[in-house]
Specification:
143 residues; alpha+beta; OB fold (Dihydrolipoamide Acetyltransferase, E2P); 7 strands
Amino acid sequence: MRMRHGLLTIGVGLAVICVLAASSQEAQHFYNVDREVDISGSVRQVIMEPRYQDKAAFLTVVLEEKTTGKLYTVEISPAWFFEQDLHQGESLRITGSLVTEGKVNLVMARQVRMRGEMMAVRDKHGFPNWRGGRSQQKKRWKR
């Protein structure tokens, strides 16, 4: 009886720890190539915030679509990877995966086009091109 009670206590304790750990993390979202969209518009806000377990400052923008005026939150990449300054009012064309989180339209960028150049921040399958860390030295922007 004591052993059963002890195992039950341990099991309940582990369940509580798992629930607390899961609730403290942000909701995870994943790149879905079947939900790719192309959006052209202008930057309304540039946001640098820690994401994905607070590993690095992540470059995120609020983009107003040119034709509809609809707002999208666009996750681009870790700030160190992007290498360009973005400014409010700047024109961008984004190809990425649309993720709807409540009333927020989130786009995980795969390609960013600006100033006549294109940067692939993810490969054609949606895997981040920044994987491998800062030691990557290949040219990222293409004309």
